[in-house]
Amino acid sequence: MDTKRPISPAAEEILGGYFPVLDHGFVSLVDYMGTDEDVERAARVSYGYGTRKTSQTRGLIRYLRRHHHTTPSEMVELKFHCVMPIFVARQFIRHRTASVNELSGRYSLMPLLFYRPDAQQFELQSRSNRQGREGEAPAHVYEEAVRRWEALRIEAGGAYQWMLEQDVARELARIDLPLSMYTQWYWKTDLHNLLHFLTLRVDPRAQWEIQQYARVMAGMMKRVAPLTYDAWIDYNLCARSFTRAERDALARLVEASGENVRARAGASLGKAELSALGLSGRELAELVEKLQPPERPDFELDLSRMRSAEDVGKEMSEAVPGAKFE
Ligand SMILES: Cc1cc2nc3c(=O)[nH]c(=O)nc-3n(C[C@H](O)[C@H](O)[C@H](O)COP(=O)(O)OP(=O)(O)OC[C@H]3O[C@@H](n4cnc5c(N)ncnc54)[C@H](O)[C@@H]3O)c2cc1C
What we know:
Blueprint lengths: L8 H6 L3 E4 L3 E9 L2 H12 L9 H10 L10 E9 H7 L6 E4 L20 E3 L7 E4 L2 H27 L4 H4 L8 E9 H11 L6 H17 L1 H12 L6 H10 E4 L2 E4 L7 H6 L4 H10 L18 H10 L8
Antiparallel strand pairs: 1-2, 2-3, 3-7, 4-7, 5-6, 8-9
Helix pairs in contact: 2-3, 3-9, 7-8, 8-9
Bound molecules: flavin-adenine dinucleotide (FAD).
The site of flavin-adenine dinucleotide (FAD) has 10 residues, from helix 7.
């Protein structure tokens, strides 16, 4: 049956397909409502009828994003099925604007799937960022960590299975299952809030594991609303805002008038001058970071990795302890 709804052929191609993330996780774009066309339609309501020219769609979407006119992008919605470790889910859930429906461990049997970081991801505590990691850990530490993880998981999974065998309520049998265990949910949000989520979670300062989910979801969003995706990269993700002190500093270095922007001859600012303008040492480091030329990220999906819902469902049900308890 033909649909009268706006659809995106690139999104249709991946709809309901599952993309692997980490060792046992997945993300699927289950459904979407609207495309760039709907962002434009909503915006045209506020700008009046008879103003539409197809060639202006891209310009309009970029203008809206540049000027924080965000409500038109709330008219588009995306629904994902995510399978992720519980510690990643705890970071997702902080994004309060999404609607979530999670697998119930009170009702269902939890698949005994646990996340095991690769050796490359097993890094030491960062000295510069208390929330980060840096520098590969020694091989023997990784080997011992894997041994301890395995022992804990066998113990926790075994206790869970034993309690189910004793007919203990599922809501109690699950209480000592670890954060590394995979949970899953439907996660629905609108395009505006998705872009906010993605901006925070593809960022290198977010935990590497949630970055992997956000990168796949960015690739999916690109297929739903490619013009919005481009505008997001240019005006949000690769953009930075300047403080009052930073603008003062830049104005001393660069002259802008009419249609020209030029460097002021011989101008430069040292630490003392920047400090006199009000920049602390930390702000100065942040300014230096902001002034680096941005790298344009690529969130293209690898279609060769897409799997079917049946295939993934089978993998999950095979990991549920003892089918006889079903
Ligand atoms: C790198 C990183 C590190 C973090 N570290 C920590 C941490 O150590 N501890 C911790 O607890 N959290 C941490 N967080 C979570 C963070 O504080 C936010 O809760 C999370 O990023 C969700 O952002 P949000 O509130 O903007 O998103 P959403 O909840 O999706 O909200 C979107 C926007 O809606 C508005 N909004 C939503 N709810 C309200 C409300 N109740 N009142 C007013 N406005 C609202 C705000 O404008 C908000 O920006 C971290 C996040 C990141 C990215």
